[in-house]
Amino acid sequence: MATITIDHLVSWLEAFRGKVADQASYLTELDSAIGDADHGTNMARGMTAVMGKLSDKPEAVDAYGKTVGMTLVSSVGGTSGPLYGTFFLRLGAAAGAVAELEAGEFAAALRAGFEGLLARGKAEPGDKTMVDAMGPALDALDAALADGADLAHAAASARDAAAAGRDATEPLVARKGRASYLGERSAGHIDPGAASTAMLFEALAEVLEG
Ligand code: ADP
Ligand code: MG
Ligand code: MG
């Protein structure tokens, strides 16, 4: 596969919606250990709202990012909403008014989204957040593309790196978000946002594998 179309971008989020809905109780269980037990319901509600809005198919990636981002900001009802929302808003703004993206353009748009999320949440790597899954995923995607991999293989590398990043949050002490209120007691649990981000990259790999 050479380019990413709006259809791919919509299918990506339909696959993500399916995962957060199917695994909502797992995400909420993770959040009950170190948060307020709502991450699964937050994400399932947000992604259902997103797919409702996307039934009116956007014509360009900027419009897609705006619709997805604004819907997440307004419907998730947790810290994760504005963070995922900013990610998609910035992804769309970086891509612009185009109907498809080359692999490198898509990677750059994802990177811009991640930078927006970092600026909004001010988390750093190792703070036990979704950043710990997304950072390694994007690094792996960029590295694979630089090595000449196609998008499907690069997305598979990103998925594996996101899963490893999610698992690596388990021993960490949280320094951002609700989990940070627990201090040392936050160690020993996987971060719920890192777990949902790993699902975002599983969904991407599935859709790009075709
Ligand atoms: P809330 O904590 O408001 O109930 P959620 O439960 O939906 O929101 O989301 C919690 C997740 O949000 C955490 O597991 C973590 O991954 C992520 N998170 C929280 N604060 C930040 C932050 N400042 N930067 C990045 N991610 C964060
Ligand atoms: Mg929560
Ligand atoms: Mg909450």
UniProtKB/TrEMBL annotation:
Q: Which UniProt keywords apply?
A: Kinase, Transferase
- Report the GO molecular function annotations: glycerone kinase activity
Q: Name the SMART domains for this protein.
A: Dak2 (SM01120)
Which Pfam family, giving just one, matches this sequence?
Dak2
- From the record, what ranges are coiled-coil? none
Q: Which domain of life is it from?
A: Bacteria
What are its GO biological-process terms?
A: glycerol catabolic process
- Gene3D superfamilies found in the cross-reference section: 1.25.40.340
Tell me which residues make up the DhaL domain. Answer: 7-206
Could you confirm whether the keyword Ribosomal protein appears in this record? no
Record keyword Transferase present: yes
Q: Which residues form the signal peptide?
A: none
Q: What are its GO cellular component terms?
A: cytosol
PANTHER family attached to this UniProt entry? TRIOKINASE/FMN CYCLASE (PTHR28629), TRIOKINASE_FMN CYCLASE (PTHR28629:SF4)
Question: What protein am I looking at?
Answer: Dihydroxyacetone kinase DhaL subunit
